[in-house]
Amino acid sequence: MMKGFQGKMCPRCHHAQMKRWTDLSGDEKFLAERLPMSFEFSAEERKKHLFCPRCWFEDIDRTTQTV
Length: 67
Known about the structure:
The protein is α+β, with helices and mostly antiparallel strands. The chain has helices at 26-32, 43-46, and strands spanning 19-20, 50-51, 58-59. The longest helix has 7 residues, at 26-32. It has a domain at 23-59. It has a 3-stranded antiparallel beta sheet with strand order 1-2-3, with no helix packed on it. The chain is built from 2 helices and 3 strands. Helices cover 16% and strands 9% of the residues. It starts with 18 loop residues before the first strand and ends in an 8-residue tail after the last strand. Mean pLDDT is 82; it is low at 1-5. Strand 2 (50-51) and strand 3 form a beta hairpin.
């Protein structure tokens, strides 16, 4: 059984598995911290996003955002 966002496909490159912040390796976090959205969202907010380790698409988890 998949838990959380495991298994969500990247909408840009169709890589089979997007990763949560906690699933990224140290090197992947280093790269993710330099993506364009790092300037638009706080570090805490970005930890709610999903990341594609192939093309570095950053997906905003809209289900946890307040309206």
